[in-house]
Amino acid sequence: MKLAVFSAKPYDKQYLTSARETKFNNNKSSSTPTTDIELVYHEFALTLETAPTAQGASAVCVFVNDDLGGPVLESLHASGVRAVLLRCAGFNNVDLEAARRLGLFVARVPSYSPEAVAEFAVAQIQTLNRNTHRAYNRVREGNFSLQGLLGRTLRGKTVGVVGTGKIGVAFARIMRGFGCRLLAHDVIESPEFVGECGGKYVPLEELLGASDFVSLHCPLTEKTRYMMNDHTLEQMKPGAMLVNTSRGGLIDTRAVIAALKRKRLGGLALDVYEGEGALFYNDHSGHIIDDDELMRLTTFPNVLICGHQAFFTEEALREIAEGTMENLDDFLHGRQCKNALVQGQVGKPLVQEGSVPIRI
Ligand code: NAI
Q: How far away, in angstroms, is 185 Cα from ligand 1 center?
């Protein structure tokens, strides 16, 4: 069977090809039965225009900025695609209702090295708080002045964690190691956050008013979209730092620019951005970028922006690729999949156990 992989970078090819060989024995290295999975890599993203390139594939494999809205899913379904494999945890880009209606199987990789993302959020805090990004450039130019590089010691500071799922708790554990006081807001309370991390749950308004650093780790939903807006930014402690490694849509960019301009916000570290789909994961250095809000953000000395790379470790890439192949295996055999967002048709295998080879 053919799996069309969209937004495929060289590292995706390397890890997915290797995971396929291990899972389906495609290099025929042992006597384990082989399932022929043809991986067709596309560097371009999945959009309504590119969806027809999936013709002949039974499944597509996609990433965070691929378009999986209703019209794209309908187009994929019409070309014979029956499964959507997300190589990420977030699924805000998928119209699950349309997938259900079309009987598509949709699965994600819900957990891959949550520490990779948590550690990156801490790296962003440390960089921005101690100005190491500016120091790096200065020293290369022979400028050893410390003026403007003053930071704050983390020990004793209050850190607010919004969303204490896998990543939020991993982040809280690290910040506890720095000697920070931990507050959290979530719709579901985590026993680890209270027990292991010694944290306390409070309403969002109280968290924002008391925290020196606020880190966002909740998913993007209709309820959380623009949770950081004019009103909530005004509730933040003056001079506090906001960190977002979750999804860009959690922050109203226009409002955050205003909060930075009036010096209410002390710093902003972003790994994600609401308009990232048009830019991230590609080299635009030779082009005119027409996103004025993003460009304005890059002019603040107390703003640090990265291109959605918090997940990007060897361990996470391996786990994403292996998880994707596990999900594909469940789909092919019509098994209940623990990572399914939409199960599709259970008990209708597209292949027989141990069949050699299969074509769908
Ligand atoms: P998770 O599902 O384990 O945890 C999410 C938490 O957010 C849950 O505890 C949930 O109850 C909470 N939550 C839901 N609605 C909320 C609300 N209205 N207010 C406060 N909390 C709320 O997810 P995980 O694995 O911790 O990932 C968190 C997010 O990180 C993902 O949704 C994804 O968007 C993002 N992510 C970013 C990556 C990157 O490379 N920058 C990589 C992986 C995930």
A: 12
Fold match between domain 2-112+313-342 and domain 114-305: yes
Residue 348's pLDDT is: 73
Taking domain 2-112+313-342, whether its CATH number is 3.40.50.720 is answered by yes
Confidence of residue 30 (pLDDT cuts 50, 70, 90): low
The whole-chain average pLDDT of the chain stands at 94
> Where do the structural domains in the chain lie, given as residue ranges?
2-112+313-342, 114-305
- Cα–chain center distance at 197: 24
Question: Which pLDDT value is given to residue 34?
Answer: 74
Atom nearest to 218 CA in ligand 1: 7
Is-catalytic flag, 101?
Answer: no
- Please give all residues whose beta carbon lies within 6 A of any atom in ligand 1, as ranges: 89-90, 111, 114, 117, 162-168, 185-188, 217-219, 223-224, 245-247, 271-272, 308, 310-311
pTM assigned to the model: 0.92
Architecture of the domain spanning 114-305 = 3-Layer(aba) Sandwich (3.40)
State the pLDDT at residue 170.
Answer: 98
> Does the structure show a pLDDT above 60 at 352?
no
Query: Does residue 26 carry a pLDDT above 70?
Result: no
